[in-house]
Q: What sequence folds into this?
């Protein structure tokens, strides 16, 4: 599919991988902490037997998800592409399920940059784009790129179609 | 009419009162009838609170009528609301997508109606609604809005205004159902089955008050004692339900009218409750031709207009639908007649054969889980021990048939300006839209689709909420053409 189309080429910031890895690490630690506490409580108050089995099942299931959550950032970064021109916002992402979206600039309603503490640590911004139909996001871009892109989209989106 | 702040119709107070009585009735019955003897603190204080709230609501209703005002000028509605906190909303006519009349039984009794101007904004605040207004005034309001709009449009398009007005005046009725159509409709919609729940609720309601079961205990053995009486009762029930079903269909769909002029489509329906809907032809976002399994057998179809403004609530769900029981050919003709800018192409492409194994082999999660559960519990239905795997096999067969049907029913078509999808297994859904009305597109491919050279495509259209459609497992080359096709929408769009 890529050969025949001028697919988007621009990539996210490489630091995105680090941000996602930290985020996953935090998320996973919290999850396992909760599981650990529950297991301990189970042991302490000796709940019904089946509860223990379910807990062990959840722990076993959590392991592959945790492994996957540390592979995912690399795949996500590797496959994320975006581009904007006067007419369209193009977004392409996904390793297992590849998705390619085309959003006309005339349908863009709002565009914003946001930054959480993790993104701030690496000087990154994420961009969210609201359209008539849905909302889209570009997860992690360096500050200058993000702000320039936001302004660029806002500029292009000024043009509206006759309904 | 222009430039003058006006109050709403005084009957609005009456309607609000009725609404208040409706909501308060249940509480009143509970507090004063069911718990009439109760002296508990909870109930007595409940009664005090009840009177306080009802009293406050009464005052509020009157104040609301005095303070809420509206104003029309040449371009917009200005709505003034708020008893204590004042607010003013301005809604330009140019944003209005469609107009809806709805006259309930009470409205008809008092010879008034309600009218809504819908803009397609997600929030209710995007809608201008006159809950009570005389028919003449409603027509005046609509005329004022549409006149302004038409003037704007004719300036935009550069057409001769005179010629345009002449065209606009010719409202032609394209369809009204005959008696035969309505009777057919009542059977297709299985309306004769409606009597059963009606009787059931009636029965349980009566049973609450007087104990029917005890009193009627002697009746059933008496009925069953003679074959003739059984047959008689069955015949009476069947006739009653058919009559009831047909009557209900007549009330709902009997007086249906699809009309159009050069600019707009008008759909009016209902005998007692009247609902009417009008939309600018240019603002129809897409059309859908829907057929349930039964309708397919009988060769009937429903044509639905997808419009940006119409919020599909329970009550008005099928207002934007042209008559739901049209013969298929008539349905296609009607679309061609009233929406000449839309072309429905009957010939469409099938899915490639490579998609079939993918679709059949795709894991059916529900079946897997259900079989797992059945295999674990092994319920012996009717005393048959093997019934767990019989159920599992039956479900699998059903799943396979469903997938085969979905595969053979799926069609797609891309032409210069149009896109068409047909999906569904037992019931089918044909979707037709124009390139400039599609607001977003996406192509997705999972790992297996990539191996087999397949892709799924999807479109988003304006509606409230937005309308997603698409077709899975088309050749990847077509998906590429689809993206290119969409990129070429610059040919059609006009920029402000």
A:
């Amino acid at each position: 599919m890529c050969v025949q189309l001028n697919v988007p080429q621009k990539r996210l910031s490489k630091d995105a991988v680090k941000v996602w890895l930290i985020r996953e690490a935090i998320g996973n630690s919290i999850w396992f902490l909760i599981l650990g506490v529950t297991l301990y409580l189970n042991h302490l108050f000796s709940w019904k037997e089946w509860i223990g089995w379910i807990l062990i099942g959840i722990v076993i299931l959590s392991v592959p998800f945790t492994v996957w959550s540390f592979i995912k950032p690399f795949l996500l970064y590797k496959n994320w592409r975006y581009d904007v021109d006067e007419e369209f916002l193009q977004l392409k992402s996904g390793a297992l399920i590849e998705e390619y979206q085309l959003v006309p600039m005339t349908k863009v309603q709002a565009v914003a940059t946001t930054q959480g503490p993790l993104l701030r640590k690496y000087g990154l911004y994420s961009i969210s784009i609201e359209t008539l139909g849905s909302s889209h996001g570009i997860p992690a871009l360096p500050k200058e790129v993000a702000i320039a892109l936001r302004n660029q989209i806002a500029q292009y989106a000024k043009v509206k179609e006759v309904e | 009419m222009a430039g003058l702040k006006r109050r709403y119709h005084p009957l609005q107070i009456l309607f609000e009162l009725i609404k208040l009585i409706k909501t308060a009735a249940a509480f009143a019955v509970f507090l004063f009838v069911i718990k009439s003897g109760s002296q508990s603190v909870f109930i007595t204080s409940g009664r005090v609170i009840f009177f306080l709230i009802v009293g406050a609501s009464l005052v509020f209703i009157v104040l609301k009528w005095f303070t809420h005002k509206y104003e029309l000028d040449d371009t917009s509605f200005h709505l003034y609301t708020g008893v204590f906190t004042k607010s003013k909303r301005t809604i330009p006519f140019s944003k209005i997508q469609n107009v809806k009349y709805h006259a309930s039984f009470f409205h008809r009794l008092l010879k008034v109606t309600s009218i809504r101007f819908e803009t397609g904004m997600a929030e209710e605040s995007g809608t201008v609604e006159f809950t009570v207004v005389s028919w003449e005034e409603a027509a005046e309001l609509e005329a004022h809005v549409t006149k302004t709009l038409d003037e704007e449009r004719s300036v935009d398009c550069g057409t001769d205004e005179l010629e345009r007005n002449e065209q606009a005046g010719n409202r032609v009725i394209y369809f009204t159902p005959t008696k035969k159509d309505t009777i057919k409709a009542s059977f297709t919609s299985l309306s004769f089955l409606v009597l059963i729940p009606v009787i059931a609720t009636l029965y349980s309601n009566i049973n609450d008050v007087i104990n029917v079961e005890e009193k009627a205990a002697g009746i059933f053995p008496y009925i069953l004692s003679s074959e003739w009486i059984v047959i008689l009762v069955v015949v009476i029930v069947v006739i009653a339900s058919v009559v009831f079903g047909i009557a209900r269909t007549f009330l709902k769909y009997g007086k249906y009218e699809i009309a159009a002029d050069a600019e707009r489509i008008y759909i009016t329906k209902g005998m007692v409750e009247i609902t009417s809907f009008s939309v600018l032809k240019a603002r129809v976002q897409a059309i859908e031709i829907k057929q349930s399994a039964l309708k397919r057998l009988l060769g009937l179809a429903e044509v639905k207009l997808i419009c940006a403004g119409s919020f599909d609530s329970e009550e008005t769900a099928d207002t934007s639908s042209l008559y739901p029981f049209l013969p298929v050919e008539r349905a296609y003709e009607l679309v061609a007649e009233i929406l000449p800018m839309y072309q429905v192409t009957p010939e469409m492409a099938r899915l490639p054969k490579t998609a079939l194994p993918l679709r059949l082999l795709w894991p059916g999660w529900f079946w897997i889980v259900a079989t797992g559960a059945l295999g674990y519990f092994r319920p012996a239905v009717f005393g048959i021990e093997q019934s767990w795997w019989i159920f599992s096999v039956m479900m699998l067969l059903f799943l396979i048939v469903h997938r085969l049907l979905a595969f053979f029913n799926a069609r797609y078509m891309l032409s210069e300006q149009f896109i068409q999808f047909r999906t569904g297994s037992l019931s089918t859904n044909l979707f037709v839209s124009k390139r400039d009305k599609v607001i977003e597109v996406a192509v997705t491919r999972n790992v297996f689709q990539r191996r087999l050279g397949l892709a799924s495509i999807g479109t988003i259209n304006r509606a409230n909420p937005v309308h997603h459609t698409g077709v899975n497992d088309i050749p990847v080359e077509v998906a590429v053409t689809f993206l290119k096709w969409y990129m070429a929408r610059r040919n059609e769009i006009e920029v402000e």
User: Anything to note?
Assistant: Residues 157-167 of chain B have pLDDT under 50 and may be disordered. The first helix of chain B runs from residue 11 to 34. The radius of gyration of chain B is 28 Å. The interface with chain A takes residues 156, 283, 436, 439-447, 450, 455, 460-462, 466, 476, 479-480, 483-484, 486-487, 489-490, 493-496 of chain B (CB under 8 Å).
